[in-house]
Amino acid sequence: MAAVSRRPLLLGAVVVVVLAVGIAIGAHLGGPGAPAPSPSPVAAGTPAATGAGSVSAVPPAAILPQVDLSDVRFASLFGLQLPVSASAGPHDTAGYLASGYSHTPLGALIAAVNIPYRVGGPFGSAIFEPTIARQVVGAGADRDSLLAVSRRDAARSGVGATPPPDVLITGSDIAINGFRWESYTPDVAIVHVAGSQPDPSSGRIIRIDQRTELRWSDGDWRFVAPPGGDFAATATPIGSVDGYQLFRRS
After folding, report:
1. Omega of the bond prior to 90 within 30 degrees of 0, cis?
2. pLDDT at 21 (0 to 100)
3. Distance CA 234, CA 226 (A)
4. Spatial CB neighbours of 204, under 8 Å, sequence gap ≥ 6
5. What are the mean pLDDT values of the chain's consecutive 10-residue runs (250 residues total)?
6. Are 182 and 41 in contact (CB under 8 A)?
7. What is the pTM of this model?
């Protein structure tokens, strides 16, 4: 396959933030090789750490759900492997978009990966523009900033509407490893997605926890834009995937 310029990316920052940002965050927090803080899921009814555009507290009915991954498989989006589920969605993937998720924890989990990864500029305007317009909620300024970054990255990559079918998108070497729940209600879901990517300069594996918030609105899960449209604001370097439920791959 032909390959576009493989500008390394921050894990979970969809194809809009370069890996250098992740390394800078790692230096600030002790480096990606430093021991990772032990995951500490928020108990039901306790306040959650949130940013702009997020809910201010976990609702009293919030739970830490168990999900059945038996029908989850991985499908390629220009080389990037994303989880999909026959039961939980996405049920509409026309034009490389992804919508139609079940109103369940598994539906929220699958949406938490598929929606954010489609807002990146290098996927092309035919993908990121409708994804942000239809499937991203939260503070208007955050959505506007996210859109501006995606348009800037699209212009830099020169991808146009969508990449050619035989092109590996920048960041296709990102691996979605696992997840842990912060909270879940039928209205608001907060899940941490763990992923990894090789650092091209050293060959080391960089691991990132991306905190992702979703809201159930108009019959589907919607992604809450990160503060300022900046995925680095909700990303944390981790040393391992201990404490995360791992996706199964055949």
Report:
1. yes
2. 31
3. 7
4. 32, 33, 198
5. 34 35 29 36 36 45 88 94 97 97 98 96 93 95 96 88 79 93 97 95 94 98 96 96 91
6. yes
7. 0.77
CA distances from 62 to 59, 112, 149, 157 (A): 5, 17, 33, 41
| Tokens 């079940």 -> residue | 102
Mention every residue, 6+ apart, whose C-beta is less than 8 A from residue 220. 99, 100, 101, 111, 135
Three-class secondary structure assignment of the chain:
CEECCCCCECCCCCCCCEHHHHHHHHHHHCCCCCCCCCCCCCCCCCCCCCCCCCCCCCCCCCECCCCCCCCEEEEEECCEEEEEECCCECCECHHHCCECCCCCHHHHHHHHHHCHHHCCHHHCHHHHHHHHHHHEECCHHHHHHHHHHHHHHHHHHCCCCCCCCCEECCCCCCEEEEEEEEEECCCEEEEEEEEEEECCCCCCEEEEEEEEEEEEECCEEEEECCHHHCHHHHEEECCCCCCCEECCCC
Which residues pair with residue 181 across a beta bridge? Answer: 191
